[in-house]
Amino acid sequence: MTAPRTPAHGVLADRYGRVARDLRVSLTDKCNLRCTYCMPAEGLPWLAGPQLLTDDEIVRLVGVAVGRLGVTEVRFTGGEPLIRPGLPGIVSAVAALTPRPRISVTTNGIGLARLAPALRAAGLDRVNVSLDTLDPARFATLTRRDRHADVLAGLAGAAEAGLTPVKINAVLMRGVNDDEAPALLRFALAHGYELRFIEQMPLDAQHGWDRSTMVTADEILAALRSEFALRPDPAERGAAPAETWLVDDGPARVGVIASVTRPFCGDCDRTRLTADGQVRNCLFATEESDLRAALRGGADDDELARRWRAAMWGKRAGHGIDDPTFLQPARPMSAIGG
Ligand SMILES: C[S@@+](CC[C@H](N)C(=O)[O-])C[C@H]1O[C@@H](n2cnc3c(N)ncnc32)[C@H](O)[C@@H]1O
Ligand code: SF4
C-alpha cells in the first residue's frame, strides 16, 4: 500500500481526516501590554520591518486561503493586532473577498473604544477581548501596564458598535487571579458579554509554565458552581475550542478552553499564518512553512495554495503536551498569534 500523499487540489486536509476552515492571522508580534504569562517585562526581540508581511501580502495570502483552500473564518490576532495601522484596510479588503469569510479580532481591548466603529464599518463581525481581572491594581501587576479602564472602555465600545457577541477571554493564574472566576462571570452576564476561560498553556516566552501549578478546567468549573448552576450546553460543539455550559438554565453561557486537561486536537480546524508569513499547522508545531519567501520569489496563487496544503497535510494528531518528549515551540504565543 502506498502512503497517502498531499492532495493536489481542494481544501486544507490532513492525514487524520481534519479540514482547516479557520485561519488565525498574526498581524504583529509586538504588544502594548506585558502579561506575565505571555512575555517578559522587557518585551521580546521583535520582528524587523522587512520581515513582516505588508498589508497587501496579508490580503493576498488570506485571499488564497479563502478562494482556493476553503477557509471560511478569518481571525486577526498577534501580538496586539490593534496596533497595526493598516488593520481597518486589511479588514475591508478581506471582507471584499469571495466567498466572504467571517472576520473577527482577538485583542487586549486597548484602543478598541476608538477603533470599533471604523472596524465595524470595514466589515469586522466580532471581537474577543482579553480580560483576566476586574481589579485595576491586579491588572497593572498582571499586565505590567496601568490600562484596565481602557480595556473596559474597549469592551463597551465594541458592544456599542455592534461587534457582537463580544467575547471575553480570561486566563486564571494560581495565587494571582484564581479567586475571580465567579466575579468575572457576574461581570460578563451583567454586560451581555460571553466569557471563556483559557487554561494556561506552555507558550510563554520565558518558559515559566508549570503543569503542577496551572489552574485546571475542573477547578474553574468548581469555582463557578459555588455561585451558578451550570448545565452542559446542548448546542453542537463542532470544532469550537471552548466547551460551553448554560448558566442558570441559560440563555447565557460560559465556556472553558481546556487545551491542556481536555485537549480537542481531534476536532481542530485551525491553520495559522504568522506576521512574517510562516504557515503553522498547530500552535505547538515545531515546523513552519515559509509562504513569504515563496510569495516574494514570485510564486503564483496556485503554488502558494499547494505549499499551504502540504504544510497542513503534515499536521500531527495532537499537541502532545502530556508526552515526555514534548518540546515547547521556539516561538512564543505572542509571535505565533494566539
Ligand atoms: C496571545 S494573545 C494575542 C491577542 C491579544 N494581544 C490579546 O491578548 O487578546 C491571544 C490570547 O492568548 C492568551 N494567552 C497568551 N498567552 C497564553 C498562555 N501561555 N496560555 C494560554 N493563553 C494565553 C491571551 O490571554 C489572549 O486571550
Ligand atoms: S496576552 Fe495579548 S495582551 Fe497580553 S502580552 Fe500577550 S499579546 Fe500582549
**What is the mean predicted local confidence, pLDDT?**
93
| Global Rg | 19 Å
Q: Which sequence of SSEs, written as H and E, runs from N to C?
A: EEEHEHEHEHHEHEHEEEEEEHHH
Enumerate the strands of the largest sheet in spatial order, edge to edge or round the barrel.
9-10-11-8-7-6-5-4-3-12-13-14
Task: Bin the strand percentage.
Answer: 15-25%
Distance between the termini: 39 Å
Main sheet specs: 12 strands, mixed
Which residues sit in consecutive blocks of at least 5 with pLDDT less than 50? none
- Number of separate helices: 10
Supply the helix-strand structural class: alpha/beta
Helix content bin: 25-40%
The kinds of small molecule bound in this structure are: S-adenosylmethionine, iron/sulfur cluster
Beta strands, count? 14
Oligomer: single chain
Q: Which geometry do the CA atoms define?
A: globular
Question: How would you sum up this structure, described in words?
Answer:
The protein is of the alpha/beta class and 338 residues long. The protein has helices at 55-68, 87-95, 112-122, 136-143, 148-161, 181-191, 217-225, 291-296, 301-313, 333-336, and strands spanning 12-13, 19-20, 22-26, 73-77, 102-107, 126-130, 167-171, 194-198, 230-232, 243-247, 253-257, 270-273, 278-280, 289-290. The chain starts with 11 loop residues before the first strand and ends with a helix. The model has no long low-confidence stretch (mean pLDDT 93). The chain binds S-adenosylmethionine and iron/sulfur cluster. Iron/sulfur cluster is lined by residues 31, 33-35, 38-39, 78-80, 108, 130, 334.
